[in-house]
Design a protein that fits this description.
Elements (H helix, E strand, L loop, with lengths): L33 H13 L2 H21 L4 H40 L4
């Protein structure tokens, strides 16, 4: 099991990660981990909190500009901004949940690689 992974990376270079499986592959190239890697990649691809937060910030700025220009009543703007605050909190909770899941996955990878947990 000692040594370097026998796989070739997508760019054609040899993988330099330590081989952790008896078949000579690192965790990332071991065919036994293919389904787990696919699930992890799918989960990461669906995560878009950065864009969602940017959209909320853009909309908040628009409300502020409309209030300052007199186009929107301050009372209506206050209610809208409370709604934006709820959206921001929802994004925070979602990010926290995603970070906790990532932390669990990192710990699992450490155990599989034989690193300290």
């Amino acid at each position: 099991m000692a040594g370097v992974c026998r796989a070739t990376k997508r760019n054609g270079e040899p993988c330099t990660a330590p081989a952790t499986a008896s078949n000579g592959y690192c965790w990332a190239h071991d065919p036994a981990n293919a389904e787990k890697r696919r699930r992890m990649a799918s989960k990461a691809g669906k995560s878009k909190p950065g864009k969602e937060l940017a959209d909320i910030k853009r909309d908040i700025r628009a409300v502020i500009e409309d209030v300052l220009s007199g186009e929107v009543d301050k009372g209506r703007a206050a209610v809208a901004l409370q709604g934006f605050n709820a959206l921001i909190r929802a994004v925070e909770v979602s990010r926290r949940d995603e970070l906790e899941e990532l932390a669990r996955e990192v710990e699992e990878l450490k155990r599989e690689y034989g690193g300290a947990a």
